[in-house]
Amino acid sequence: MDNRQQIIKSNQSDLNEHENRALNMIRDSKYHSITIIKRDGKIEMLESIERISEQTRIIDILKDHNYQNIELKQANGKIVCLNRTVKTKLS
């Protein structure tokens, strides 16, 4: 482990569970954007937007999460963009 990795690892140990979860989501390449909502200085909720493959069946997307917003864009009769926003409450 090089010096940079040691510094990152030691800094991560100072994070609480919610901060670690947010950081892991930020590092995950499947998310297009992450919004962190704080209350009283603590992370209360994470809103994540992920791009989904256009070949994924709508019914499968609906089954993935109980609380989600799905954005579907169609051009020339074909789905060209499919995004899902998921809200995760951490409190």
Which short descriptors sum up this protein?
about 90 residues, about 30% helix, alpha+beta
Summarize the structure in words.
The protein has one domain (3-89). The protein has three helices and four strands. It has helices at 3-12, 17-27, 58-64, and strands at residues 31-39, 42-51, 68-75, 78-89. The longest helix is centred in the N-terminal third of the chain and has 11 residues, at 17-27.
Quick structural overview:
The chain has one domain. 31% of the residues lie in helices and 43% in strands. It is built from three helices and four strands.
Distance between the termini: 34 Å
**What's the tally of helices?**
3
Q: What's the structural domain tally?
A: 1
> pLDDT below 50 for ≥5 consecutive residues: which ranges?
none
Q: What is the string of SSEs from the N terminus onward?
A: HHEEHEE
- Structural category is alpha+beta
Strands of the biggest beta sheet: in what spatial order? 1-2-4-3
For the sheet with most strands, the description reads: 4 strands, antiparallel
Topology:
Elements: H1 3-12, H2 17-27, E1 31-39, E2 42-51, H3 58-64, E3 68-75, E4 78-89
Antiparallel strand pairs: 1-2, 2-4, 3-4
